[in-house]
Amino acid sequence: GKGLLITTEARPNAQNHITDMDETIDRLQQAQQQQEELTDLARQYSAHLSQQTPNAVHQTLKQDNSAIQGTPSHEPTVFPELNEPHLVLSGAAGIAFSTPQSTHISSGEHMALTSGKDTSIAVGKSLFVTVKEGLSVFVHKLGIRLVAASGHVTIEAQNDAMLLEAAKDFNITSTADTIHITAKNKVLVNGGGSFTEWSANGIKSGTKGTWTEHAAAHTSLGPLSRPV
After folding, report:
1. SS3 call for 163
2. I need a labelling partner for 199 at 20 to 30 A (CA). Which of 28, 51, 109, 178 fits?
3. Beta-carbon count within 10 A of 57 CB
4. pLDDT per position as a tens digit, 99-116
5. Which residues form a coiled coil (predicted)?
6. Are the beta carbons of 99 and 15 closer than 8 angstroms?
């Protein structure tokens, strides 16, 4: 082989050759399969911005796993594993990294992280995520929850549209103050075909059904507007 294997997998009585790593290869192949299965699930819900990016990652994982597994040889002195100069770390009970200073992980191409159960990230100060092209997040079962105990929650689409969609009820609530809905050109509210349209030209409303109003009094005053 051309690479290096560092492992804590037991080989009693020095069984098998020095680069034997069946357990490690099995885990890597299971991780590759999990990546592909969850990506296919996300595709069913149109969750990915690009269909090509996950494919490129999966292809790289497949190629790397194949190179690590190697090609069987009939030569007794030629070990099949590590066709390419990979560094393979395998911990039978786990792998721990620790430093009192900083850690930098760099990949010139793709990076894939796979966990069979939970993944936890704990940050003492701030978490910065900077993406040059697209970001997609997909959850299959239990939903997404974002909570800010203090400070604003700001979501912006600075150069394009923002789309918010729900299959069932869509609730907007201010528990202690006011809800402001502002548009520079027009606000259109449409419910079942009945609508109200607000713009600088005026207010237009329409319905094919019955319009019912309840008020203690109705008052019409002169023109009034607020700056946008």
Report:
1. coil
2. 178
3. 18
4. 999 999 999 999 999 999
5. 14-51
6. no
> Is the Cβ–Cβ distance between 88 and 21 less than 8 Å?
yes
Where does residue 83 fall: left (phi above 0), alpha (psi -120 to 50 degrees), or beta otherwise? Answer: alpha
Residues with Cβ < 8 Å from 228, sequence gap 6 or more? 182, 183, 184
Contact, 194 vs 206, CB < 8 A?
yes
Per the listing, tokens 């966990």 go with 115
Measured CA distances, 25 to 21, 63, 77, 120, 132 (Å): 6, 13, 21, 25, 33
Give Cα separations from 70 to 32, 81, 109 (angstroms). Answer: 16, 4, 22
Q: 89-97 long-range contacts, Cβ below 8 Å, gap at least 24?
A: 89/6, 89/7, 90/5, 90/6, 90/7, 90/8, 90/9, 90/21, 90/23, 90/24, 90/27, 91/7, 91/8, 92/7, 92/8, 92/9, 92/10, 92/23, 93/8
What is the pTM (predicted TM-score) of this model?
0.85
Per-residue confidence (pLDDT) for residue 13, from 0 to 100: 80
Chain segment 155-193, per-residue pLDDT in tens: 999 999 999 999 999 999 999 999 999 999 999 999 999
